[in-house]
Amino acid sequence: MACCADSMAQPHTRGHGAARAASCLGEAVRLNPMPSLYDLSLPELEAHVESLGAPAYRARQVWEWAYRQYAATYDEMANVPAALRAQLAATAPFPEAAPVREVAADDGLTRKRLFRLHDGKLVESVLMLYDPRSDSRGRATVCVSSQAGCAMGCIFCATGQSGFERNLTTAEIVAQIIAFAREQREAGGQPLTNVVFMGMGEPMANYRAVWAAIERLHDPAGINMAARHVTVSTVGLVPGIRKLAAEPLQVGLAVSLHAPDETLRERLIPTAHRYPLPDILTACREYVARTGRRVTFEYCLMAGLNDAPEQARSLADAIGGMLCHVNLIPVNPTADNSIRRPSRSRTLAFQRELAARGVPCTVRVEKGVEISAACGQLRAEPQPLELMTAPARR
Ligand code: SAH
Ligand code: SF4
Questions:
Q1: What's the pLDDT band for 105 if we cut at 50, 70, 90?
Q2: Pairing mode of beta strands 230-234, 252-256
Q3: What is the spatial distance between Cα 49 and Cα 51, in angstroms, rounded to a whole number?
Q4: Distance CA 128, CA 67 (A)
């Protein structure tokens, strides 16, 4: 194993007086007595800066450094007075999300990074760059984690099998994205274009923090990412789907179905009984009606479990007529090697059944399978990961 921890570690401090000094802050503070810079909205940051005796426009300078320049420390904020920088570092520090390891694949186009959070929890994020020769849009997508672990327990998912640890804060979600954005900038690479909540965890079970992170991403005075370039993937938490549909920003919705019927679904997703399939589909139809956007249904194909042509036909019946798209994902290997991906021909046969019934459908091209960076493989493992390509240091 090679480890890039030492060279990648960010300087970071967490001020001891933060809880006291931050008492003037808004909601983020009530939830977390020691908020990080990225936890705060611009109005909250302005109020905080004013409470420190500085004019509100200083907050906008800090905001610009954080979300336009992707500063990693307050020290970089050259036009902010040193005394204020020190106060801010003590009361609204950068989140502690230290990169401890990175592995790359696809000639460096896919990079998985392990972050250690302030309490030692480990989460992973993946940057997926697309070869401009095959992707004229030149996308640079970050797949972020929304929780450390996951409580949903999907039997085919490495994260689900490792159990739930805790929700991530807004700052911890944003930090995963900004770390990649900064490096892309420094390397003169493609700026980030898309963010997908398809890493560790169930984003709808951590809705508030996830939504606030989306607001940070979208903010025109900051990262300025189009809402349609953000996708939230859920295992089917109906209240979350309804909330998302009602939001003013229209982000993409992906719903992990994996089965055409309730019985099989509950076998694959042990917690699925909380929101039965018909309720999920009703909520999806409401989302389409409200937003005019199509839903993506993710369907993880597992040999002998959910890959039969008749199951494809039942799936088409269940979602038929909806503005949607099915993403077939041949299951990636996890610790449970009794769950296998179907043969290519069986996968294509499943796709044909859907297409024949008018359901748009693609087979996902997985990136990073060999570094456990693909869907469902984002499990924070304390043991060494194989380093395939050392990321270029900049
Ligand atoms: N919890 C959310 C988002 C994170 S999982 C959800 O379940 O949608 C992101 C995607 O990875 C989901 O579609 C999930 O079904 C898929 N996935 C999980 N384990 C997988 C595996 N072993 N192989 C392929 N896809 C997997
Ligand atoms: Fe959680 Fe999604 Fe994995 Fe299921 S597939 S255990 S919901 S992360």
A1: confident
A2: parallel
A3: 5
A4: 21
State whether the beta carbon of 300 lies less than 6 angstroms from ligand 1. Answer: yes
The rounded Å distance from CA 158 to ligand 2 centre is 8
Q: What is the mean pLDDT of residues 54-83?
A: 98
Atom of ligand 1 nearest to the CA of 341: 23
pTM: 0.88
Taking only the tens place, the pLDDT of each residue in 115-131 is 999 999 999 999 999 87
Q: Mean pLDDT for the chain?
A: 86
- Considering every ligand atom shown, identify the ligand nearest to the alpha carbon of residue 336 and give its number: 1
Euclidean distance between CA atoms 29 and 50, whole angstroms: 16
Answer yes or no: is pLDDT of 379 > 60: no
- pLDDT confidence tier of residue 28, bands split at 50, 70 and 90: very low
Mutational test site, ligand 1, from 375, 378, 379, max ligand atoms within 8 Å of CB: 375
Q: Give the closest ligand to the alpha carbon of residue 203.
A: 1
Alpha-carbon gap, residue 347 to 314, rounded angstroms: 16
Ligand lying closest to the C-alpha of residue 268: 2
Phi, psi of 120 (to 5 degrees): 90, -5
Q: Rounded to the nearest whole angstrom, what is the distance from the C-alpha of residue 377 to the centroid of ligand 1?
A: 8
| For ligand 1, mutation pick of 123, 156, 364, 372 (most atoms within 8 Å of CB) | 156
On the 0-12 / 13-18 / 19+ scale of CB atoms within 10 A, 388 is middle
Q: Can 300 be counted among the known catalytic residues?
A: no
Instruction: Report pLDDT for 137.
Output: 64
Q: Is 96 a catalytic residue?
A: no
201 lines ligand 2 (CB under 6 A): yes
Q: Give whole-number Cα distances, 84 to 58, 89, 92, in Å.
A: 9, 8, 11
The answer to whether 72 touches 10, Cβ cutoff 8 Å, is yes
Catalytic choice (46, 96, 124, 165): 124
Please give the Cα distance from 128 to 104 (Å, whole number): 10
Query: What length is written for the chain?
Result: 394
> Residue 221: its pLDDT value, please?
94
Going by alpha carbons, the residue nearest to atom 4 of ligand 2 is: 154
C-alpha angle 367-369-373 in degrees, rounded to nearest 5: 80
